[in-house]
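Continuing the series of single-chain predictions for the mutant panel. This is the parent chain; the variants come on the following pages.
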Amino acid sequence: MSVITIDHVTKSFGNVEVLKEFTQEFQDGEFITLLGPSGCGKTTMLRIIAGFEKPTTGEVRIDGKVVSSKDVFVPPEKREIGMVFQSYAVWPHMNVFDNVAYPLKIKRMPKNVIREKVEGILEVVHLSQYADRMPSQLSGGQQQRVALGRALVAEPKLLLLDEPLSNLDAKLRESMRYEIKEIQRKLGITVVYVTHDQIEAMTMSDRVYIINRGVIQQVGHPIEIYRHPANQFVADFVGKVNFIKGLAEAGRIRIKGIDQSVKYDGEMRGDVVLAIRPENIELTSAEGHLTGILSSMYYLGDVNDCRVEVGDTTLRVTADAHTYDTLRVGDKVGLIIDSFLVYPDDGNDDYNKILT
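Parent structure:
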């Protein structure tokens, strides 16, 4: 267990700055997720914490001890961390027991201690019955649990995970998310998890760090980030959202290009962008806040995934599944908007479209 302090860390590769003034503290026992698109700097930050990269400026402290700075560098093997990579990285010539035991054998621990610790961690990762199996006899999810057990067996202060589920199929990813979270809760260990998968971040994290182009965009609990995104990038990256350009006046926002508007009690004026989650729109055959033409429907079993043309803008609407039997493509429909967010219009036309 440990507290990680990151103080004014930057990282450049040549003339390219991939991390800009990263200053944060991860608390003891927290599950922290660094979330962002490819190339945003999240893996670089993880590698700096691990000791695989040196920061260009700033320092990293683990439990108050400086492990990376201008004058100090503690190598990875002396930082008391466990790390799980995107690839399983299990030894193909060793069985499950020996794979997990490897870090303890390197430390030349007594055999009886090794057996006790390995058997204990195999139980935690639900692999006790597979101790004698070779990696080739295991599924992808089981191999990833071997890697997780190997990272945990030496009882590290900190567990770092770099997109560990990206090579698994959808069903295995879902089950492994809950297993990793349960292991973290059971051991009370601090975890820093890197992913570009918003669902992983939402389901597992105590706090999520949204990063774009090396800059932290927002930090918060998953619910806070989903319901109150700090800007259009965050709203776009976490969940599904519709963006509509409008003009904010006293009491109304007029949708650009069409003679329709929605009620608005905020203080913003001038050019704005409305951000509306698909689940916050209700379709009705009666009059709504907006009116449009139903252009497509996709029955997904639990929901009806719809597209509605409102002027030149296509809105995505997540409707109740039963509406698939009552609505028809080409119908004129009303849209009742339960809630929306308003941002200043920064002129980025990439946001004036349906985003999935």
